[in-house]
Hints:
With 429 residues, the chain is an alpha/beta fold. It has one domain: FAD/NAD(P)-binding domain. 37% of the residues lie in helices and 24% in strands. The chain has helices at residues 5-10, 13-17, 42-53, 85-92, 94-117, 135-152, 165-168, 188-201, 248-251, 269-275, 316-327, 372-387, 392-398, 408-428, and strands at residues 29-32, 35-38, 58-61, 77-78, 125-132, 157-160, 176-185, 205-207, 214-216, 222-224, 228-231, 234-237, 254-264, 281-284, 291-294, 300-307, 337-348, 354-359, 362-366. The strands form three sheets. Strands 4, 5, 6, 7, 13, 14, 15, 16 and 17 form a nine-stranded mixed sheet that branches. It has a six-stranded mixed sheet with strand order 8-3-2-12-19-18, covered by helices on one side. The longest helix is centred in the N-terminal third of the chain and has 24 residues, at 94-117. Flavin-adenine dinucleotide binds next to helix 3, strand 13, strand 17 and helix 12.
Amino acid sequence: xxxxxxxxxxxxxxxxxxxxxxxxxxxxxxxxxxxxxxxxxxxxxxxxxxxxxxxxxxxxxxxxxxxxxxxxxxxxxxxxxxxxxxxxxxxxxxxxxxxxxxxxxxxxxxxxxxxxxxxxxxxxxxxxxxxxxxxxxxxxxxxxxxxxxxxxxxxxxxxxxxxxxxxxxxxxxxxxxxxxxxxxxxxxxxxxxxxxxxxxxxxxxxxxxxxxxxxxxxxxxxxxxxxxxxxxxxxxxxxxxxxxxxxxxxxxxxxxxxxxxxxxxxxxxxxxxxxxxxxxxxxxxxxxxxxxxxxxxxxxxxxxxxxxxxxxxxxxxxxxxxxxxxxxxxxxxxxxxxxxxxxxxxxxxxxxxxxxxxxxxxxxxxxxxxxxxxxxxxxxxxxxxxxxxxxxxxxxxxxxxxxxxxxxxxxxxxxxxxxxxxxxxxxxx
Length: 429
Ligand SMILES: Cc1cc2nc3c(=O)[nH]c(=O)nc-3n(C[C@H](O)[C@H](O)[C@H](O)COP(=O)(O)OP(=O)(O)OC[C@H]3O[C@@H](n4cnc5c(N)ncnc54)[C@H](O)[C@@H]3O)c2cc1C
């Protein structure tokens, strides 16, 4: 648990609006499984489902509750692509970057299939709008769309000219945009709990309040918790920024960056329906971005701000409300902010995902860099393929090189802050 985490999760709209979730026991004593998965977020749960489908016996260890981490708190925007497709292309070349892009397209398909197959009631709405705040940023977005269309052949985009943007979003803030019909949004905690139910039904044994505290490596690793241990053939680490001391070399390669969301009171039906065409998810292209969408019950969920210190910004609800009313000035000044919460994004230095092996039989999935809602599904599938002996797609990602943030946590924070300040200034200027 990171500094101020308690306060961040206490007032979450998702927790208030999702079913309680099945309480699972803590691990007590030693048990045996083919695979031990560490981390009950979207990545770990996806891996368990894919492994169980392939006939493996699976134990999942979760330090807190299933969906407690980023997976149960995020913006819910399921988006095609990676946080940095450029970094992937620079390292892998055009053909393999295209293969990686296709994995993300499969991720959106997989998400839809799981919602349908497991009958997960999670308010999924298709449609995603990427918006630029001025002409210069609109040109950059347009150039990116054209070059990505050429490179990846993605057919789901529609460019929205300056003159038409008002038909898509009732805001004076945006100049032009790009609509993506395949991406969309959902209630992430409901989706996560739905995956946990599917995993349970597939025979996965889930243990909550069972932090993995050590791994004895070898042909049959032993993963220990305070109350027990799991002897297994393979381990999958999906602990995000919370893995910490379990494998310090992995923790050094990701930086926890705080990001925050508020939920308004439910808006009058006419007002909610008039804000964003077809209730698409929206995200601007600024470096410190605003991301927002309507919830199933008509609230505006508005996310943004960042914190590099892991401390929650002061006056969170008020400052987020001010940002929100800059986008939608038609919202009343006294609109009630019913919920304010946040969490930590696992950013890698180059923003590309970081998948690989600590040992031949110990795999890890991390570094989704704010693009995990859809990609975690495929990450789980790829690691299951690799364990089953078909590692081609997993190794596509494992080939990506990553660097530790220099100087450990104390130094990497100021270095990152300086870098981010530079980009923030560029946005402002
Ligand atoms: C506020 C916010 C908004 C976001 N918005 C979006 C968005 O709109 N779209 C998008 O694509 N992505 C978004 N993201 C990112 C996305 O949520 C993540 O990429 C994704 O949820 C990562 O899933 P995960 O399973 O890797 O990690 P998590 O969901 O964090 O799960 C990791 C789990 O591992 C457990 N764990 C850690 N160590 C141990 C251990 N030693 N033993 C046992 N358990 C352990 C933790 O308790 C935790 O439950 C957002 C993130 C945040 C925080």
